Amino acid sequence: MEHTKTYIEQDSTMIAHHETDAPQNLQVCYSGMDDGRFVLGDGTITATSAHTMQIQGDCPVNPGMELALMVAIPHSDDHLYLVGGQVSSSTIHSFEVDLRQVPEATREQLATLMQNCQEALADFCYAA
User: Fold this and answer.
1) What do you get for the CA distance between the two ends of the chain, in Å?
2) Tens digits of residue pLDDT in 43-98
3) Minimal CB count within 10 Å: which of 6, 42, 46, 97?
4) Any idea what the Cα angle at residue 72 is, between residues 47 and 122, rounded to 5°?
């Protein structure tokens, strides 16, 4: 993932803010079949719970679709793969995935990843 650096002038002091990957920026790729149509999309995880994941995506999906999900691990080239998720509800740009059919060990890895992302703080650099 790409990091950005923004500069803000405040009281004649230049503040450099190095933005890190925030939990709302956890990226996911998803794929599945919908009535014979292959669906492949990219999205952002906006929320998770023990058995569900909310995604804002660029390709619409329909309730009932089974999805394979590939969650990008921040600051790494690795991904967490989730197989067996099922779309439980959807709107044009967002949807919810039921994760109960995803193996428990994988759901635990997702919970740990989300927790680590939530604990990460942005770096601030101050220069005179």
Assistant:
1) 29
2) 999 988 889 999 999 999 999 999 999 999 988 899 999 999 999 999 989 999 99
3) 6
4) 70
Residue type, 105: A
Question: Residue 52 and residue 13: Cα distance in Å, rounded?
Answer: 45
pTM of the shown model:
0.73
**DSSP code, position 102:** S
Residue 47: φ, ψ to 5°: -165, 155
Encoded tokens for 60: 């619409």
Among 115, 122, 111, which Cα is nearest to 21's?
Answer: 122
C-alpha closest to that of 53 among 92, 102, 119, 20: 102
